[in-house]
Specification:
- There is one protein chain.
- By secondary structure, this protein is of the alpha+beta class.
- It is 44% helix and 18% strand.
- The relative contact order is 0.12.
């Protein structure tokens, strides 16, 4: 398992030592020293991992939030585009929304 797959505060073993994740690339050892963990490092999680469903639910909340913000953005921008650019604007909007799925 890689560090980016662990939640903040998760405990793991790396190179025979026990660490706690405190940042995207950092962890503290049991002795309290700060260490940079390479992205490619293979880690052994010590805590139970949360179910994947929770991560999927969090993602859907984020997508809904992005979609709402983007819809508001499009509503405000549409009048500024003008009639000549409406087709391209609508196509770009649809492409963006499709990329969220």
């Amino acid at each position: 398992m890689r560090l980016h797959q662990l939640p903040q505060g998760a405990r793991f073993e790396y190179q025979g030592k026990i660490f706690t994740k405190i940042g995207p690339l950092t962890a503290t050892s049991a002795e309290g020293s700060l260490q940079l963990i390479p992205r490619h490092a293979e880690l052994r999680p010590l805590d139970a991992m949360p179910p994947q469903v929770a991560a999927d639910a969090e993602k859907s909340v984020q997508v809904a939030s992005v979609r709402a913000a983007f819809d508001l953005f499009c509503q405000r921008c549409a009048p500024l585009v003008g009639d000549a650019g409406q087709g391209e604007f609508s196509a770009a909007r649809e492409n963006f929304l499709a990329s969220l799925q």
